[in-house]
């Protein structure tokens, strides 16, 4: 996708009234300072931001985290932006291992480090007034039996779910292609293993649904609706885990947005383009235009009814 340079002329209009609220992920704006990224999104008219905790954007390991979190909370309030906290930073714990150590790490100390990061993220999310804190399982280490991997995951996530319950911030686990927890079915397996805690919810990535779920992305939204706590959105192709700008993949978005609009989900739907920071400002503008154009036209009806939507 290409377009004109982004120009700022004060805060733009927010997304059209209705239940779908759009955000943009800071992992797709890593070439911008956080304050500049937040101002950009407010100017464009986004409803919120998916804030990835990382060294360039609210470092969860830096001294003075509480004071910086309070400052960011004030800035979000000034700009009228909602927020969800994301924890998918590639090298925040280990500068040489992408997403390492994970909740599945063979080393108990490594797993504990990831648990500590997630508990910190829950606290940050509570202080920001975030609607959820996101996480994922990680890739099963080589030579690890599936039963062992699931035992590690459930044992690691239990204290995080407890912290989320105490803080009043839902924990939203994301099925990620290639990870132990890769599908909606895997999420339900985890939910059962943990005893279905009320603090445990789901991050649904619409592109991941296109990539590997048996149901269509719109059907995935309807199937996942009771557990939805966070939504990520981008284009993607079947069988290829590559986050693409809208229009570059295969997803039919109007039915997806209609399903979200009638699902009862009240959180942000966050554009997730983590490998496109080089064009982040332009893509943020183009993405919001695309999503607004794909929103349902006319009155909405409850899930399961016959709603008409405008095709983009």
UniProtKB/TrEMBL annotation:
InterPro entries: IolE/XylAMocC-like, Xyl_isomerase-like_sf, Xyl_isomerase-like_TIM-brl
Spans annotated as Disordered: 1-22
All residue ranges annotated as the Xylose isomerase-like TIM barrel domain in the record: 38-292
A single GO molecular function term of this UniProt record: isomerase activity
Keywords: Isomerase
Pfam families on file: AP_endonuc_2 (PF01261)
Protein name as catalogued: Xylose isomerase
């Amino acid at each position: 996708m290409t377009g004109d340079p982004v120009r700022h002329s004060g805060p733009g209009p927010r997304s059209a009234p209705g239940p779908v609220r759009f955000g943009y992920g800071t992992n797709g704006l890593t070439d911008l300072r956080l304050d500049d990224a937040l101002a950009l999104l407010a100017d464009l008219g986004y409803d919120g931001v998916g804030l990835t905790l990382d060294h360039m954007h609210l470092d969860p390991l830096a001294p003075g985290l509480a004071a910086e979190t309070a400052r960011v909370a004030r800035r979000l309030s000034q700009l009228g932006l909602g927020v969800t906290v994301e924890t998918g930073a590639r090298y925040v714990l280990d500068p040489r291992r992408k997403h390492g150590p994970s909740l599945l790490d063979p080393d108990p100390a490594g797993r504990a480090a990831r648990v500590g990061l997630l508990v910190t993220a829950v606290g940050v999310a509570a202080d920001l007034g975030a609607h959820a804190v996101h996480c994922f399982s990680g890739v099963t280490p080589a030579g690890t039996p599936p039963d062992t991997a699931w035992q590690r995951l459930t044992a690691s996530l239990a204290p995080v779910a407890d912290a989320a319950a105490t803080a009043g911030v839902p924990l939203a686990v994301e099925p990620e292609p290639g990870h132990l927890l890769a599908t909606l079915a895997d999420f339900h397996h985890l939910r059962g293993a943990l005893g279905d805690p009320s603090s445990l919810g789901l991050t649904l990535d619409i592109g991941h649904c296109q990539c590997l779920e048996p149901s269509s992305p719109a059907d995935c939204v309807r199937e996942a609706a009771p557990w939805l706590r966070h939504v990520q959105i981008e284009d993607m192709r079947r069988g290829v885990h590559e986050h693409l700008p809208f229009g570059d993949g295969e997803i039919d978005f109007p039915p997806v947005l209609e399903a979200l609009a009638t699902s009862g989900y009240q959180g942000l739907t966050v554009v997730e383009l983590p490998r496109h920071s080089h064009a982040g400002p332009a893509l943020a503008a183009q993405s919001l235009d695309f999503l607004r154009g794909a929103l349902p036209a006319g009155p909405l009806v409850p899930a399961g009814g016959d709603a008409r939507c405008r095709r983009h």
